[in-house]
Specification:
Strand content: 25-35%
Shape: globular
Structural class: alpha+beta
Low-confidence stretches: 1-8, 10-21
Radius of gyration: 25 Å
Order of helices and strands: EEHEHEEHHEHEHEEEEEEEEHEE
Helix content: 10-25%
Distance between the termini: 46 Å
Oligomer: single chain
Number of strands: 17
Number of helices: 7
Strand order of the largest sheet: 6-17-11-7-10-9-8
């Protein structure tokens, strides 16, 4: 009779074994994969000599409504206006993770869990950064100066919903939005109404490959179920504009390290990951006084009190549209 059970978390049957298959993930990194993050290598270079907090400076626009020209009448002196600007601070996020498996697991079950880990870590980190980025956007959009960047639907999904969200946030600059991230349930509602178009885009430098992408009101649509539904009450759609989220990857001396522990459990293989990233909503400044250590925890990074609006609100190209679940048709 075959001895069955598990060893090291894997099925163990010395008589019958056909191999292991990776279970397909039920999640997607489509938001980050869309290219929503704008790389700014200068942010990383600021921190490469040490430190976790960096600062970038900006000029305020010359606005004739706020600083009108003077009448040249021969009597009035043309007093110059001092050019003004500001600064915004960004923070380095440092994270680590390790996985282990006993060598007996591989010897007795023919499983190779560490090989699986090695081919899965890239998606693991992209999913983690994506989830943190969405929470960061939520925190930023609770700032009082960005109150118009959040609207709540009153009649479910209709043709004007995303248009209203764009206009409320950026007014006459609403065309600065380019990406619309929605839950699959909301996507299905748009499909039922026939509001999704499929536009052709050419990807240059890749054999001029032409692809079709779903669009709503000219916005490229990204369908993603993580971070877009609270589980019971509301669905949340996110609007992103070009350059709305800046990113960089500061130097990590040892990003990956493998080790072998000969003492534990008959021999254990270990893979260590160290990762660092900058995720920064352009136009908003991070307040480092609100964190207890050198790098913020997830909670500290996604707490609205630790962020401060620095740009004119119309230059912060982030917004969200909240749809109460009760306003959507059942079935999906």
């Amino acid at each position: 009779m075959a001895i069955t059970g598990t060893f090291g978390g894997f099925p163990f049957d010395p008589e019958v074994y056909q191999g292991f298959v990776d279970q397909e993930p039920t999640f997607s990194d489509s938001i980050i994969a869309s290219g929503v993050l704008a790389t700014d290598a200068s942010m990383a270079s600021v921190l490469n000599n040490g430190g976790t907090l960096g600062t970038t400076r900006f000029y305020n626009p010359l606005d004739p409504d706020k600083d009108a020209p003077l009448v040249r009448d021969g009597d009035t002196d043309n007093e110059p206006t001092t050019i003004s600007g500001g600064k915004q601070s960004f923070i380095r996020l440092d994270r680590m993770k390790a996985w282990k498996a006993t060598q007996l697991t591989r010897e007795l079950t023919a499983a190779d869990p560490m090989a699986y880990v090695a081919r899965s870590t890239s998606l693991y980190w992209r999913m983690y950064w994506q989830g943190l980025m969405v929470k960061m956007v939520d925190a930023v959009l609770t700032l009082s100066g960005l109150s118009t960047h959040v609207i709540t639907a009153t009649a479910g999904v209709d043709a004007g919903l995303v248009i209203d969200g764009q206009q409320a946030a950026l007014g006459d600059l609403s065309s600065k939005f380019g990406l619309y991230v929605i839950h699959s349930k909301v996507y299905a509602e748009y499909q039922k109404l026939g509001l999704i178009d499929y536009n052709k885009y050419t990807i240059t430098n890749v054999l001029q490959k032409e692809v079709e992408l779903p669009t709503i009101n000219g916005l490229i649509v990204i369908k993603n179920d993580r971070g877009t539904y609270d589980g019971s009450t509301n669905y949340t759609n996110y609007l992103f504009g070009q350059g709305s989220i800046l990113t960089a990857t500061p130097k990590v001396i040892t990003p990956d390290y493998t080790d072998y522990d000969a003492k534990t459990d008959g021999g254990t293989d270990i893979l260590y990951n160290n990762r660092s990233i900058i995720l920064h909503p352009n136009g908003v400044s991070f307040k480092a006084d609100g964190i207890t250590k050198e790098t913020p925890t997830d909670t500290e990074f996604t707490t609205s009190a630790n962020w401060d609006l620095r740009f004119d609100a119309k230059n912060v190209r982030l917004a969200k549209i909240v749809i109460p679940a009760a306003q959507l048709t059942p079935g999906e």
